[in-house]
Amino acid sequence: MWTPWRIVGESLLGAVFGLLAAASEALDGGGTVRIVAVALAAALLSPLRRVLPATVLLITAIGSAEFDGLAPLILVAAWSAGRRIDGISKAAGAFTAAYLLSLGLALLQGELPLLLALAVGAPTLLVMIVVPGLISRYWSQRRTLTDTLREYNAQLLRERAMIAGQARLRERQRIAQDMHDSLGHQLTLISVHAGALEVDRELTGRQRQAVGVLREASVAAMHELREVVGLLRDGTENPRHGGASRALQAMGEEDATAPSRGVAGIEGLVEASRSAGTAVELRRCGEPRPLAPTADHAAYRVAQEGLTNAHKHAPGASITIELRYEPDALVVEVVNGPALGTADSGRSVVSGGQGLTGLGERTRLIGGMVHAGPAADGGFRLAGVLPYTSPEGGAPGRSPEGAQTTFGGPTSGFRQQVPAGSPSEGDLVIDGVGLPKELVKAMHWNKKRRGMAIGCGVAALIFVVLPVVAVGVAALFLADESDKAAINPQQYDAVKLGQSEAAVREKLPHGNSVLAHGLDKGAPPEPKGAKCLTLMSTESGSSWNMEPVFRFCFKGGELIEKKSFEVRS
């Protein structure tokens, strides 16, 4: 279906070719009917070349031998046919037929001698018909190959992103399974043993309270483990593996719908620390504002990490947690005083040293930052600055349209992110699509470069060198023939009536040349019984299609007539 602009463009192009055809036929002296017919034919063939390229090429090549008005259309028809004819054999057949038919018709018309027609007509038709088609076909194939390379590159990028996404899924599933099998089991044992100790009658009230705090901590840890495992396993569950929620529920978890930790959960952390006998103060400054989910969770982690470090490294020291709602960010600050006694060299504390590093990475991803360092009174200070919105202006982890992204961010090295709900480990990654034929040919050019060089040389010889040589030979031939059949006006004036035939012929060329062929057409009648010598003039005629001619007629051994006139070339 053509667009409106294409229709307008083709209409204008058809009108241009119609006007050119009409002007050409008018200069040739054609009648009104002939001029109108050729103009309409050119105007109709111009848009048809897009639908019937081979047919229009053949019609134009055949018609141009009789109607000069169709000659400008040959170049456009050949260019269009080179692009649109499918298959090398069909294109070669169409161009060969068009070239041979147009050359054969030109020779059959007999306006020029055979050798001259071949020397001039063959290279001309080659340049007008074959060369545009070859250039157009090369350009079209190059564009097709480029498009194929782009599509294949995009396919490789998609497959690469799929492979990377599935590798992430498998790794996350492995981590989730390890966490479930190891941490879940240990936390379950802690919870069970703490519950048994809590009902032991030999414990004092304070000991029972401490054991209760321990059990609540283990239960809270199992809640958080369930959430982390659920996030890691999200999108990776299949019938062979149970979900994280079901696994942890089997461990004794009764609260499968516990909300995710956030600013609201900081008060629970404070209460748990107070129950353990630590003096903790919670302060709030400013008007509370909503946070993005990731920032809300990061605020909880900052407070949790600060309390954990204080319990580890400064047991018994007072702790102050402050939530300051600034105009553009929430500041979570945890400050503990100096340790009250000598630490036990950390023998009873297990610390991997990764808490602050992971916390800094978490806040950096949402556009915030974390500061940790000694306080002025000898204690320790941990502060996190968390923006209310993500750097992109929306909730972190979500696209501008609100769609949840999966496992990747804007800094990913892949062109596309793996969508949520992508295939699991057992699904196919690549659909087995092979390389396109054009791409295979392009990738094996090194093996065929010698053949390509030979082919390019042969093509250059056929379509560049040979036409140039043919034109040169034709020019030399025409120059030699012109010396045999052409004189200038001064030579014509030097010849006088009554001179002997032998003297006149000695001064003039013999006229036996292919260029003198057809000069008697349209000439005045010759004197009765006379033999005439017709020669061409070296000067131009009164118009581009008129040829000046000099004729000398002899009878009885002397010159009886000389005439100067013009004939149509």
From TrEMBL:
Gene Ontology MF terms in the entry = ATP binding; phosphorelay sensor kinase activity; protein dimerization activity
Query: What segments bear the compositional bias annotation Polar residues?
Result: 402-415
Q: What is its EC number?
A: 2.7.13.3
Where does the record place the Signal transduction histidine kinase subgroup 3 dimerisation and phosphoacceptor domain? Answer: 171-235
Name a single GO cellular component: membrane
Q: Which InterPro entries match?
A: HATPase_C_sf, Sensor_HK_TwoCompSys, Sig_transdc_His_kin_sub3_dim/P
Which keywords describe this protein according to UniProt?
A: ATP-binding, Kinase, Membrane, Nucleotide-binding, Phosphoprotein, Transferase, Transmembrane, Transmembrane helix, Two-component regulatory system
Catalyses: ATP + protein L-histidine = ADP + protein N-phospho-L-histidine
Task: Provide the top EC class.
Answer: transferase
The annotated region (Disordered) lies at 391-427
Transmembrane region(s): 51-79, 91-108, 114-135, 451-479
| Protein name, per record | histidine kinase
Organism of derivation: Streptomyces natalensis ATCC 27448
Q: In the record, what lineage is assigned to the organism producing the protein?
A: Bacteria, Bacillati, Actinomycetota, Actinomycetes, Kitasatosporales
